[in-house]
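Forwarding the complex inputs:
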Amino acid sequence: MVTTSTPLTRSMQRRQSRMLKLLDSERFLASAMLLPAVAYIVLLVGIPLVTAILFSFSDATMASPEIDGLNFDTFITVLNDPVFRRSLGNSIGFTVISQASMVVLGNVLALALMKNFPGKWFVRLLILLPWATPIAIGAIGWLWIYDSVYSPIDWIFRQVGLLGIQGDHVGLISRAPNMYWLGQYGPFSVILVQIWRMLPMSTVILMAGLSSIPQDVKDAAEVDGVGFWRTYFQVTVPLIRPIILVAFLFGVIFTFTDMTIIHVLTRGGSDNSTQVLASYAYYKGIDGGNLSQGAAIAVFMLPVLLGLAMILLRIARRSEVR
Amino acid sequence: MVGVNVSVDHVNLADIPGSAAAEIAAGEGHDLIEYLSPPSHLAPAVMDLTDVNEEADRRFGTRVELTRRSTYNPTTNKYFGYCHSWVPDPANYRRSMWASVGYENGPATWADLLEGGTRIRNEQGIQMGLGMSNELDSNLAVRAVLWAFGGTEQDENENITINSPETIAALEYMKNLYDSCMTPEVFSWTAASNNQLLVAGQASYILNSISAYRTAAEIDYNIADDIGFGSPLLGPTGIGVVSEHVIPIYIIPNHARNPDAAKEFLLHLTANSDSLVFNSKLYNFPTYFDLVPELTRDGGWLDLDPFGGRPVDKLAVLRNAPEWSTVIGHPGPANPAIGEVFNTFILPQMFAAVARGEMTPDQAAADAEAKMIPIFERWKAEGLMGGGA
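Prediction (whole assembly, two chains):
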């Protein structure tokens, strides 16, 4: 049987061949696959970011979010605000301390979890739990743990004689029966929760880095009789430095921009000792209705995060080249 | 109006400002939004409710004055909201503790509080709880102290008055009170602290609504029986006044699609105030007392608590609550500047700085004033408040 192609089928064949050619084109495929990510970034990151920057140069309020004109007045007001300056210092301080601690503790945990021991899977599960828990729920749990009167930590401290028991016993740390974690040691308490929250992610990333070190490198170090510390600092750390930086970068971004922990635990503290840029921006901009000042405070996070990300990515890239 | 279906979305109190901001920015959303404090900063984005307020006055009689001052902006001459009820903020104390130090009916003055509270702390090891933290109850408690000593945040004409000898006297008093009767827990006070500590017998005195008492009654009537109520403590000036505890205020955003139905809903809700007050277990008080005669009449709900109070007239002290309750921003209106000062916790922080010994009273008052000046200037520039007269 002879088949004849009509003009219609020829046109369909041509279209099909064009489509196949297009699907074989790397340039087209790359663009098509990147499009959802680009759209996501533009719609959910780019537009809100530009809007926040515009708000910060305006005098918009929550009730009048129109941008009539742009000026620096809001930034001048914000810079003269002592609570803002304290929030900026706290944001940087909390982030540096918690992430430095996290890198150290994450390394320790990752090294420990790389070893074989009974119940390893269970320990790994426990360590990962804080990361799987929604942050608000975790923070509420910590609010109870830090309770002024019924803190379980205080109870343990009283049992071992570190805290006083009303009326008859003076503790080693204090006469009082409670530590008043959030009332007296707000910054310490908040940093501890930040470490608790970020440690699992850091540990998992570092474990991935450790498992990628070739066994022959480790064997070579062992054959040469190199001790643990020297192996760790001269072999392991240089090889996983890019991974450490990735963990650090993620940790910094999550910690620097977080307001949930502060909002649940202290709302900034009665002396603003735990106030951070994210929480202060919210209280000023949304609760206080001063949208432009809230936006200006939030915008101060941008250069810090941008600069930090660029520095860390550059270091990571340099490490990779070596 | 018949045939109107009302659907209600319950939104967490803390999420209401954010949700309202998003709806206002989008120009779409609910026809009615209920706040628990005066949202005066939203005036440009909400409808003028003068008509529904005037209609309510015409239908229901004389309103409690603080409900007007919480919803009316004298500068724009408009009502930005509608208040159907409010919640008093009486003193709550543990009767047995205060009786043991000679105050059978609880303290009557701030001097009594210091004297009796110190003895309770020394003899029974129980502290008192007046929060100085970034939260609602602390905001109310420190204002009660401030007002009792003659201090104010602003005057009637909305000028800042915080840096005054009266404020400094209030700060000195609070420093003494903290050193004698309190622990650092007051710096991490939360909205639940009042209830938790009073019920647990870990606080001798708090300022709160009657919710702590109702909570106790659900757990153990022996505890509830031991809770007494008092009117605001008198300061050296003879003033004893407290802010409302919370004040439900409805706004109708400009984007509302059914404003007429929304206004009718508010009037209908108010007309049923007796049901509202009763079902809140007397937590909410009406804007129009004439609508709930059972509440205050001799032998009524306050004299014979229908929810099992022992003694039955335990809540009778609330009969005069409209006389000793006022609005945040007292003696001025609850304007947007006061709202921002309230929501950024400037006053609790001022008291906390002195109590902690981080600032002298003079420094703390000057510091609070410095923080308030740009806020007041900002909202005056918006045309939403007066000042200067």
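Chain B touches chain A through 52 residues (CB under 8 Å).
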